[in-house]
Every structure is written in C-alpha cells, then in structure tokens.
Write the structure tokens for this entry.
Amino acid sequence: MQRREFIQLAAAGAAGIIAQVRAGNAQQLAGKQIRLVVPFPAGGPTDIVARPFAQMLGDALKSTVVVDNRGGAGGSLGADSVAKSAPDGQTLLMATVGTHAINPALYRKLPYDPLRDFTPIAMVAMAPVAIVVNPAQPIGNLAELVALARKMPASSITARQASARRVT
C-alpha cells in the first residue's frame, strides 16, 4: 500500500467515525433546548449573525435554540456565563474576536480563560475590517498612514504606550 493511499484510507475512516459520533450527539440533543449566548446586546452585528444561525441549528438538530443576549464588559459577561455553565453541549457561545482575542489583551484579569474554558466548534461568519481616514489627509495606503503616525507621535499611540495603558 502506498503512503498516499494509506493516508486517504485513514482520513476516510476518521471522517466516518467523526460523522457517527456527531450524529449520535445530535440525536442526544434532539428535542432539548439549547441556549446560544450572544455576549452583546440584541440588534448588534453578532446578534444579527446569531439569530439565523440559531434557527438553522435548531432545524438541523430538531431542537429549540434560544438566543440569550448577555451584553456587558465587551462580551466578558456572556462569555463568563458560558464558561461557568455545565459542559453538557446545551449552552453555546457566539464567540467573537472581542471575547477571545481583544479582551485577553486588554484586561489583566478575565473571569474566564479563552483557551482553557472553551472548545471551538465552527467558524460561523467572517467580516472584513477596514481602516479609514479623512479624505483630506494625504494618505493613500497603510504604509503612508504608518509613516504619518510616526511623524506625529503626540497624536498617535505606539504599541509600547498601548500595552503600558492596559486596563486593570
């Protein structure tokens, strides 16, 4: 047996096992209520993504998925409530870059550990991020923006200053 054939066979076997386990877990959740915690207020971008996702997830699992908006502290309150919930698969978090990257970099102490307390399941949505400037500024690209910021240190924050100003 060639190495490539072995890898393909092993991957196919693993995929079959994973599909069976997932199907079994889905059957265990059928008819049960699942809580999807959105760590931001209703009507915001995360909520707008979460609600159609909750509907599709509920249909797929034959369950009721309830969206629970728990806004506050940049998403930390909602994330903390999920981190402290029973690990039974019935409480999910609509995590964001805010709850799992920005908050750990911004706050010295969080009531949850974004790596230890959560298991990533799937990426639900991606959104582009744009850097914009006043059209009166003589800036045409990111390199020019960085060069202008370096010339004007009093009006810009350097990475060193930002890390020194961490919120406690």
Summary: Residues 160-164 have pLDDT under 50 and may be disordered. The first helix runs from residue 3 to 29. The longest strand covers residues 33-38. The chain has three domains: 1-29, 31-128, 130-168.
